[in-house]
Amino acid sequence: PQIHFASESFIDEVAAALNLDPIEFRLRHIKDARDVALIKAAAEKSGWQTRPSPRRDQTGSKVSGRGIAYAQRNGTRVAVVAEVEVDRSTGKIWARKFTVAHDCGQIINPDGLEKCIEGNVIQGISRTLWEEVKFDNKTVTSVDWQTYPILDITESPESIESVLLNHPELPPLGAGEPSTRPIAAAIANAIFDATGVRI
User: Fold this and answer.
1) pLDDT tens, residue by residue, 69-100
2) Is the pTM of the predicted complex or chain greater than 0.85?
3) Residue among 73, 88, 107 at smallest CA distance from 181
4) Considering 16, 27, 30, 62, which has the largest number of Cβ atoms within 10 A of its Cβ?
């Protein structure tokens, strides 16, 4: 997740510097047909509107944005579109909606795969927005749920949608963790789109 956070944030920064839509920029540089199909599927399912980031048409304390991130793990490919709302007066971030395009080769159990993706998104949001191990000069100070908060039901997204790209000609490549990898970058890119501030 750390590597994909850095690389996918950087790709988003380059697209913004060139005043290009983040998906359009990625598609200019991705050649593998499975990767292209995956990113296009995430864009279509999420209703992505082509434009550069950040948004410049918002006023008021609450703003919204969308971001994309893409990752591969052991042959599985995942593209995530995150939509966030940011309260500029408090800094509170709500990761509101996720669209996940998922290509893990042959799909054995589509229902189980969707549930796995949903769990990975929730864990990814928690890691991104809430979880932090803290230390003093002697020891770890994050020792309970008060000092190590996690995402709770009131912060959960209103929607997690999946697009499953099945490749029966390929072996099953795994779905336990790949969809957690791009979550932090997708959220950070959406925050940039909403606020113009790079996390």
Assistant:
1) 999 988 999 999 999 999 999 999 999 999 99
2) yes
3) 73
4) 16
